Write a sequence for this structure.
C-alpha cells in the first residue's frame, strides 16, 4: 500500500463511565481505503471506541479527526460515517427497499426520484438482495438482514464504515461466507471498514491491518502476519489464542519457568515475565527422550481435538496448567498418545518470544 | 390435590369479580327500558319500552319530566377530553423521551410526577380554583382551569405508559438513522414515532377516558358551565328518572366504540406487516 493520508485519526481519546475508564487516551492513525479489524476481548472498550467515532457518544477528552477535519463536536448525523450494528437495527416498519432508501430520502441532500431508485437498486444488487425489495425485515433471514444493514450504509457512499461485531449474530457457515463478501464488497468501493470483533480468527482473516485493544488502549496495530509472528506484549499473544504462555522469572538474560532455566538472547518489554511459544511450534516427545530441540517440559496427556486440517493435543503441566500442541496434518500422521501418560514437550528456543519486565542486553 | 380445591375457589372468585364489575351496568341497562313516563328507577319493570331513549332525544310528547340538560355538557366534555388527550399525550411522550437519558435529578422528578397521582382529586380541584381566584385572579372555566386540572391529572398516566414503551425501545434504530445522515428531529418523526405509535394510542385512550368522566377535580375548577359528569350529578339532586340510565347506556356504548377504534388502529399498525407477508406468499 502506498503512503496515504489517514482516513481518521484519534488523539488521546478518553471515555469514562463513572469510575470505569472504557477508553484510556487512545492515539490511533488509520490507513485510508483499508479493512481494519479491531480485536479486543469483551470489556476492552471496543464498542465504546466505535460509538465515540460514530458520534453516538462524546469522549471525555481527546480529539477525533476524519478526513482532515476535527469532528469531535459534530453530531452523528453530520459526520458521514456509516455504522453497521450487531443486531442490524433495521427499521422494522419499512420494507427492504425503504430501509436502504432511508438515508437518501430523509438526509440533507435531495435526489430526483429516478436517481434515488437507481442508487438504491445498485446498492441492493451489490449485496445480492435483488428481488427482496418489498419484503419486511421480519420476513428475511439473519444473513439477509446483515446485507440490508450494509447496503443501507453503503448507499450513502461513506468513506468510513464502522462495523460492530457484524458477524456475531450469524451462524458459523454464514459467517465464513460473509467474511469473504465483506472483504470483496469493500475492495470494490473506496471505503475504509473498521470492523470490531472479539474473535482473533476473524480479525486475522479479515483485516488488512489489525488493531488490538486492551483495557481501553490500542496495544498493537499492524498487519495480521506481523501481529501473529510478533506480538509486542504478552496480552496480544494471549488474545491471539495461538501461544502457550508460561509465567516465570526473567533475570539477567535467563528465563526460569516450568521447563527449567533458559538463556534468552532477546526479550520484549512487558509488565510481567512471560514466555510464549506458538501451539504449532510446540512438539511432543517421549517422557525420557534425550534428543530434544530445546527445553524439556514434563506433561501429562489429557485429550485431543480433531479439527479437519489439524489436531489439537491438550496436555497438563505439573503445575496444573493446560498446554496445547497444534499438529498440522499436512506434516504427516500424528503420533499416538495415551490419555494419562507422561510425555515431554519441547521446541526450538529460537522460535519462542520472551516478554520481560527487564529487557535482555 | 391442591388445584382441585383451589381451582373452583378461584373460578367462583373470578365469577364474582366479573359480576360486581358489570352488575351495576346490567341493572342500569335493564332499568333504562322501563316504561315511561310513569315508570320509575326501580324494579319491577312495568312494561318494556324504549320511551326513555326517545325522551332523551326529545322524541316523546311533552310530559312533567324535563329533558335531561346534558346536550351542551356532553359537547363540553368531549371537547375537554379531546384537548386533554392531545396535551397530556404530547407532554407524556416528551417527558418519557427526556427520561431515556439519566439527567441530573431524574429520580426526584420521576417521583414528583408519579406521586402527584396520589393527591386527592377534590383537593387538587379546590386548590386549582383557589389558585385561579385568589392568587392569579382569573375566572374559572371548563376550558381553562378545569382543562389545566385535567392535564395535570392525566399527564402522569400518559407519562407512565410512554415510559414503559420507551423502556423496551431499542435505541439502535435511532442511531442507525443518525448514522445515515438523518437529523434527530426527522429521526423521531420517521423512526421513533411510528414504532412507539401503539403506546401513544394507549396513552391517548387513558387520557381521554380519564378526562371524560372526571368528577372531583372538575367540581371546583370548572366554574359556571358544567361538564357532563357534573351535569348528570346535578340531575340526581332533583329526582332520578330512567332517562339517566338510558343516557348512561349511550355513553357506555360510546366508550366501547372508542375502544373498538383503538383496537382497530392498534391491530392495523401490528397487522400491516403480516398482511404483506401473506400477499408475498400468494404471489
Amino acid at each position: 500500500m502506498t503512503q496515504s493520508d489517514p482516513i481518521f485519526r484519534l488523539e488521546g481519546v478518553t471515555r469514562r463511565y463513572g469510575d470505569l475508564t472504557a477508553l484510556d487516551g487512545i492515539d490511533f492513525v488509520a490507513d485510508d481505503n483499508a479493512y481494519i479489524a479491531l480485536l479486543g476481548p469483551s470489556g476492552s472498550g471496543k464498542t465504546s471506541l466505535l460509538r465515540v467515532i460514530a458520534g453516538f457518544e462524546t469522549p471525555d477528552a481527546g480529539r477525533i479527526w476524519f478526513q482532515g477535519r476535527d469532528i469531535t463536536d459534530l453530531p452523528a448525523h453530520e459526520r458521514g460515517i456509516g455504522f453497521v450494528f450487531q443486531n442490524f437495527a433495521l427499521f422494522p416498519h419499512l420494507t427492504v427497499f425503504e430501509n436502504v432508501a432511508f438515508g437518501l430520502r430523509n438526509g440533507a441532500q435531495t435526489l430526483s426520484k429516478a436517481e434515488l431508485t437507481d442508487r438504491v437498486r445498485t446498492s441492493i444488487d451489490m449485496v445480492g438482495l435483488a428481488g427482496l425489495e418489498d419484503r419486511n425485515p421480519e420476513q428475511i433471514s439473519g444473513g439477509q438482514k446483515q446485507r440490508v444493514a450494509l447496503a443501507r450504509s453503503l448507499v450513502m457512499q461513506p468513506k468510513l464504515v464502522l462495523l460492530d461485531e457484524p458477524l456475531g449474530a450469524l451462524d458459523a457457515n454464514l459467517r465464513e461466507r460473509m467474511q469473504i463478501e465483506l472483504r470483496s464488497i469493500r475492495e470494490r468501493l473506496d471505503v475504509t471498514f473498521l470492523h470490531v470483533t472479539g474473535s482473533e480468527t476473524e480479525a486475522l482473516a479479515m483485516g488488512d491491518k489489525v488493531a488490538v485493544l486492551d483495557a481501553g488502549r490500542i496495544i498493537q496495530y499492524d498487519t495480521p502476519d506481523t501481529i501473529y509472528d510478533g506480538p509486542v506484549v504478552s496480552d496480544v499473544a494471549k488474545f491471539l489464542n495461538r501461544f502457550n504462555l508460561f509465567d516465570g522469572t526473567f533475570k539477567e538474560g535467563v528465563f526460569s519457568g516450568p521447563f527449567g532455566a533458559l538463556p534468552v538472547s532477546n526479550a520484549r518489554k512487558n509488565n510481567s515475565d512471560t514466555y510464549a511459544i506458538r501451539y504449532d511450534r510446540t512438539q511432543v516427545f517421549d517422557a525420557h527422550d534425550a534428543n530434544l530441540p530445546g527445553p524439556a517440559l514434563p506433561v501429562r496427556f489429557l485429550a485431543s481435538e480433531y479439527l479437519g486440517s489439524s489436531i489439537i493435543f491438550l496436555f497438563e503441566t505439573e503445575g496444573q496448567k493446560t498446554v496445547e500442541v497444534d499438529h498440522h496434518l499436512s506434516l504427516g500422521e500424528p503420533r499416538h498418545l495415551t490419555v494419562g501418560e507422561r510425555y515431554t514437550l519441547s521446541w526450538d528456543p529460537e522460535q519462542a518470544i520472551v516478554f520481560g519486565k527487564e529487557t535482555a542486553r | 390435590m391442591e388445584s382441585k380445591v383451589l381451582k373452583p375457589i378461584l373460578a367462583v372468585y373470578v365469577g364474582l369479580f366479573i359480576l360486581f364489575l358489570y352488575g351495576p351496568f346490567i341493572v342500569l341497562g335493564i332499568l333504562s327500558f322501563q316504561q315511561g313516563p310513569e315508570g320509575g328507577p326501580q324494579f319491577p319493570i312495568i312494561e318494556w319500552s324504549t320511551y326513555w331513549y326517545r325522551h332523551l332525544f326529545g322524541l316523546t310528547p311533552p310530559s312533567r319530566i324535563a329533558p335531561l340538560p346534558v346536550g351542551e355538557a356532553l359537547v363540553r366534555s368531549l371537547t375537554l377530553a379531546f384537548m386533554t388527550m392531545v396535551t397530556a399525550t404530547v407532554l407524556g411522550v416528551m417527558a418519557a423521551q427526556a427520561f431515556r437519558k439519566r439527567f441530573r435529578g431524574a429520580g426526584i422528578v420521576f417521583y414528583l410526577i408519579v406521586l402527584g397521582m396520589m393527591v386527592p382529586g377534590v383537593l387538587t380541584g379546590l386548590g386549582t380554583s383557589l389558585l385561579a381566584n385568589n392568587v392569579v385572579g382569573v375566572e374559572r372555566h371548563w376550558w381553562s382551569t378545569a382543562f389545566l386540572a385535567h392535564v395535570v391529572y392525566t399527564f402522569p398516566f400518559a407519562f407512565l405508559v410512554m415510559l414503559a414503551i420507551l423502556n423496551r425501545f431499542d435505541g439502535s434504530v435511532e442511531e442507525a438513522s443518525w448514522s445515515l445522515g438523518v437529523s434527530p428531529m426527522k429521526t423521531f418523526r420517521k423512526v421513533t414515532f411510528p414504532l412507539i405509535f401503539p403506546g401513544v394510542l394507549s396513552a391517548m385512550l387513558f387520557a381521554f377516558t380519564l378526562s371524560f368522566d372526571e368528577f372531583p377535580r372538575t367540581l371546583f375548577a370548572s366554574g359556571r358551565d358544567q361538564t357532563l359528569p357534573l351535569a348528570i350529578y346535578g340531575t340526581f339532586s332533583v329526582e332520578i328518572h330512567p332517562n339517566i340510565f338510558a343516557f348512561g347506556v349511550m355513553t357506555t356504548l360510546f366508550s366501547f366504540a372508542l375502544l373498538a377504534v383503538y383496537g382497530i388502529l392498534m391491530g392495523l399498525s401490528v397487522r400491516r406487516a403480516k398482511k404483506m407477508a401473506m400477499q408475498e406468499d400468494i404471489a
